[in-house]
Amino acid sequence: MGHDHNERLEKVRSGLPSDESLCDLADLFKIFGDTTRMKILYALSETELCVCAIAELLGMTQPAISHQLKILRNAHLVGSRREGRTVYCFLADEHVETIVSQGFEHLMERETEKERRK
User: Fold this and answer.
1) CA nearest 58: which of 73, 77, 43?
2) How far, in Å, CA of 102 to CA of 58, rounded?
3) What is the pLDDT of residues 49-84, one digit of tens each?
4) 64: Cβ–Cβ under 8 A, 6 or more apart, which residues?
5) 75 Cβ partners below 8 Å, 6+ apart?
6) pTM score, two decimals?
7) Which string of DSSP letters, residue by residue, matches 95-114?
């Protein structure tokens, strides 16, 4: 004999976003699945940087960094401004900073737990 979970299911169904919205969310998180892009986001969470500084920091070419920045800009995760010939990049808003910092906090909690179990 099973249990009745209809009330809980109805609560979830009524608040479930559309398939299109969930697909968009999945696509957003795929962008975070690249180590280079995460390095860029982490660096920009510290300070605004020009493209050449990001390239130097990561030991990559400017075209390679520009490619990754285009992906981040298209996802509205990074903004940029031009000053003369120099393009400066920054995190688009506080949500991006929160996602990055919360992700690291989550990882650090797991690492702390692993250490405690040893």
Assistant:
1) 43
2) 23
3) 999 999 999 999 999 999 999 999 999 999 999 999
4) 36, 55
5) 28, 31
6) 0.84
7) HHHHHHHHHHHHHHHHHHHH
41 burial class (0-12, 13-18, 19+ CB within 10 angstroms)?
Answer: buried
Residue whose pair of structure tokens reads 């957003």 in the numeric block: 28
Closest to 75 in 3D by CA, of 35, 41, 109: 41
Quote the distance between the C-alpha of residue 4 and its chain's center: 38
Strand partners, 82: 87
What is the chain's Cα-based Rg? Answer: 19
pLDDT tens digits for range 77-113: 999 999 999 999 999 999 999 999 999 999 999 888 8
